[in-house]
Specification:
nine-stranded mixed sheet, 14 helices, 15 strands
Amino acid sequence: MKKANTSRFILFSWIVFICGYLLVGLECIERLPLYSSSRPHIVVIIADDLGWNDVSFHGADQIPTPNIDALAYNGVILQRHYVLPTCTPSRTAFLTGRYPIREGMQSFPLRTGEQRAIPKERKLLPEYLKDLGYSTHLVGKWHVGYYAPQYTPTKRGFDTFFGYYNGYVDYLNHTVSEDPESHAHIGNDLHRDKLEKLSPEFATGYLTDLITEEAEKTISMHNPARPLYLQVAHLAAHATGIDGEELQVRDSDDLNLTFGYIKDIKRRAYAGVVAALDESVGRIADALRKADMLKNSIILFMSDNGAQTEGLLQNYGSNYPLRGLKFTMYEGGVRGVACIYSPLIRKTSTVSDQLIHITDWLPTLYSAARGNARRLKNLDGVDQWDAIRSGKSSIRDRLLVNIDDDVGEESAIIGRYKLVKRTNTNYGNFYGDDGEDDSYPKYEPSDVRSSLAASAISTVSSGWLREGKITKLRRSSKVSCQRSTHFANCTESCCLFDIYADPCETVDISALYPKIVADLRNYVNGYRKVVVNQTNYSVEPASYPENFDGTWMPWLKDEDYFEDDDDDYNVAYQI
């Protein structure tokens, strides 16, 4: 009997050992860089300050965007995609998968030369994807901190970086000043960085085109056997000067010929900027086709926040009919334009009402890349890949829009109800053109079908999308509200909106539903214990470009790379 028990013990021990070995092996499979085409190529295209009404798939005729529309109609239109009110918080949320309140990055965006960044201990999306064997590249805007070398893109998970560190630059000469009004301390902010070297770049040309060309080159030079992560963060359609005076276009004559029907010359310039952005989307999709990568790719297109129709750095974009602007927590500021295309999505050509937050993209893309998102810890984002791919209901039913104690604002959503507290009522109306006028060229589905993006997509799909289907999808993605001149005042207290019945946030129903208000306030208050107060620092004189041969560069030493504090420091050329 004793001998039998001993034999059973030995057998059980071997089984435990073998199971443990297999589990460890499975975990290692995920951790090892697997250069396999089974992992999809991922391209994320981020527009800057693009308004809800500035893509034609949302129903307006004024500015046609056939390439963006082709992605939307052949993929999934994300109708309830929420972002943050401004660029630095949105990009922080996207890269970390966490609400920016946790990082002290939730309020006013980073100023040029400000000593603040996403904390170094925070792992970012490209770092997670590198664990899965991805080659990672950023083209365009950074804007989450660069005051020391360790905060620059190639020290935060990107293999290469071509773009600008600050919030915006001039479209033509790629410079930015410390103060947009005084134009003091103006310098170049275009860079071509690798892991071992941070280098100023002095390329000439229209920046939207330069970003597009760099994206095309990155795709064409990439080995398709290794999965690619390419983040294309455009300057378009951000203004680069006060009052939109420096919203430059590629060619004024072509602009007037193409968009002469838009009488407001500043709105016309904005249309030209958006048209160049749309062209870029088509060229990137076509580059994936040429490289034989589109069949195994995911293309996500989104705006970082709503348009800034009025106010500081206004760009004359339109969030109509949504209420509010960039910098506000109304829908016009935080309900962002978004769509996703991939041959890997099973249920395509749909308008999705799934509730999605920008923090969701880190676990979602990680899951799409065949990583185990359940192993990701301490995130606010949730894995939505299965819901998006299969058209299932979102696993999210609530989200924190933001807590900004610097200005005393907060907002959250649970289901159909949205709480807004003390948000900026100075910009709480309808803004921008409605995009509907008999003088505008009528929307033609055939223009979408003949676009560069649609042509590329047709090579990996079963055929062309029918014009009737395009018309139906466009009608379904249009938000309609009764025009109003009276809006609930949310400056002094809380407002509650039913954003299903009243997506334009005109009627405050807080008095009718005090229990729902209490639930939403309790939800917001639950996050207060993790809020890291944001401190906006003054611009550091040491950061001025005149200290670095006319270019904005990191200005502090980094202990990871510099051991001798007495050494001369010139990060512009070598680390």
